[in-house]
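Entry 14. Structure prediction run on the chain below.
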Amino acid sequence: GVGDRILYFVSQERRFTATATATTSFFEDDSPIWEKEGRSDWPYRVKIKPDIVLDEAQQIDANLLAPRLDYVRRWPPENWYMAFQGNLHLLPKSDFALIEEEMKKLKFGPDYKSQLVVQPPQASRRKKAGSKRRHRRADGPPGTSAPRTGAAAPAPPREEGPPQQASQSAP
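Output returned:
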């Protein structure tokens, strides 16, 4: 939807190349996108506003940045690039922000002052070993844990709302 953020990843070169912001909700259009395409296999589209577009020499080698991303940890380290194959992928905001900050440093040079506040990922917080603390479930006996809210519930589709990050693979 409007305000969603897009990260461009060129899969053959394994490079992050640009970010943009969606300025419209999705719409259908069957007109060709590229001259030699013949027909469109991309009927669902959004209009975008480019944010950071790196020159070819500035494009980020994803082999160097990917190990720092939470999103790629779902894949074996040697196959991290599979995380970005296909069409669209929802990225954690922290991963998107990290990549975009690196792009800004390259685009704007040494005078650029980063505005990224790095926070430790939630998964890195661990309970102290031997902790006697017990959780009580509201409807259960003492010592049972309450379920985590929203852990497995799918979110309903939204037309409007806070921005989501997505990456777009290019051939």
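The helical segments are 62-65, 93-108.
Filed with the rest of this week's runs.
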